Structure formats: structure tokens, C-alpha cells
């Protein structure tokens, strides 16, 4: 009888060891995947790339790739990558939020530069694009304070025009109200 107990105990111990090994392997796969992504992101951040991202990048790597393109002055390529991430349905929400926020910042920087150069139409267009992207980021994360701050900055550059009543006779108005689209160019954004 003691032999059977020893045999069943060793089988039980072997089964527990196998379950523990499987649990360690299952837990190690996401860790190894995260390590691979982080290594690739670090490599991307230090590279001097100037072409569109390869197709096999993860969403996190593509976000880093777009950021690096923008840092290197390749704004059009960066915007294309951010738009791809922001508009895709299979992308994690935090990646989409970051893509909308970064797009908004690119457009906001452009609007500030155009406003300083007195290019009113370009500044207005870029400011409207910035506001749209920052609003999209806030729709996904209403507590994103950096996006709120930058949206407020964009509103200062390009305020929303008030909607008219529609029932007024334009000839009955004696004076014309002037509403400036360029209220100033404040500095600083997170």
C-alpha cells in the first residue's frame, strides 16, 4: 500500500510541476513580447529613418516610428502614420489617443508658426485641424489634461465663430460686427 501512495504522490508532484512550467511559459510570452517591442522602440528612437514605416511593425512601434519621423522633420510621413493609427479599429485605445494628441500638436505647432507669419488662412485651417484631433483625443479620454490645455490654446488661436440667428435682415443691421479669427498667438504647450 505504501508503494501505491508513493507512486501517486510522485505522479501528483510531476503533474504540479508540469502545470507550474506551463504557467511560467504562458506568463513569459507577454513579457518577452513586451521586451521585443521595447527593444524595437528604443532602436527606432535612435535611428535616422526618413521613409514610411514597414508593414510588420506593432502599433506601439508604429507610434514610436511616427514620433521619430516628426522629430526628424518628416512631418508629412509622421502625419500619415499617426492618421493610420488614429483611424484603425484594431488599435488599442491608448495608442489611438496618443495618435490623435500628436496629430493635434503637429497641427497646432503649424498654426502657431503660420499665425506668427501672418498667414491667416493657413493658421485657421491648421488650427481647425488641431482642434478636431484634440477633441477626438478627449472623446476617447475626457481626463487627458494635456489635450484639454492644447485644445484651449487652439481655441485661443482660432476661436469658434458664433452661429447667427438666421432670422435677421442683413440690410436692417446698421453696423457690421467684426469677429476676428486671429485673437493672438500664445506660447507654450505640453
Give a written overview of the molecule.
The chain has 6 helices and no strands. The chain has 190 residues and is an all-alpha fold. Helix 1 runs parallel beside helix 2, helix 4 packs antiparallel against helix 5 and helix 4 runs parallel beside helix 6. It is elongated. This is MxaK protein.
Number of DSSP strand runs: 0
Tell me what the CATH architecture of the largest domain is.
Answer: Up-down Bundle
CATH fold assignment of the largest domain: Methane Monooxygenase Hydroxylase, Chain G, domain 1
Principal-axes shape call: elongated
Helix/strand order: HHHHHH
Q: What average pLDDT do the residues reach?
A: 78
Largest sheet: none
Q: Unreliable runs, pLDDT <50, ≥5 residues? A: none
Strand portion? under 5%
> Which secondary-structure class do the elements indicate?
mainly alpha
The rounded Rg comes to: 27 Å
- Residues in helices, as a percent range: 55-70%
Amino acid at each position: 500500500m505504501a508503494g501505491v501512495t508513493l507512486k501517486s504522490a510522485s505522479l501528483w508532484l510531476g503533474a504540479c510541476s508540469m502545470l507550474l512550467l506551463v504557467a511560467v511559459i504562458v506568463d513569459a510570452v507577454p513579457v518577452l513580447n513586451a521586451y521585443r517591442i521595447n527593444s524595437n522602440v528604443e532602436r527606432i528612437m535612435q535611428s535616422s529613418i526618413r521613409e514610411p514605416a514597414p508593414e510588420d511593425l506593432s502599433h506601439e512601434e508604429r507610434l514610436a516610428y511616427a514620433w521619430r519621423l516628426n522629430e526628424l522633420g518628416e512631418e508629412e510621413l509622421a502625419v500619415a502614420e499617426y492618421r493610420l493609427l488614429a483611424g484603425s479599429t484594431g488599435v488599442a485605445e491608448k495608442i489611438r489617443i496618443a495618435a490623435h494628441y500628436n496629430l493635434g500638436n503637429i497641427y497646432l505647432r503649424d498654426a502657431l508658426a503660420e499665425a506668427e507669419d501672418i498667414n491667416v488662412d493657413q493658421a485657421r485651417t491648421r488650427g481647425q485641424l488641431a482642434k478636431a484631433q484634440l477633441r477626438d483625443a478627449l472623446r476617447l479620454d475626457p481626463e487627458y489634461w494635456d489635450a484639454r490645455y492644447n485644445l484651449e490654446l487652439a481655441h485661443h488661436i482660432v476661436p469658434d465663430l458664433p452661429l447667427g440667428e438666421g432670422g435677421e435682415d442683413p440690410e436692417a443691421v446698421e453696423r457690421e460686427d467684426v469677429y476676428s479669427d486671429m485673437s493672438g498667438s500664445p506660447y507654450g504647450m505640453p
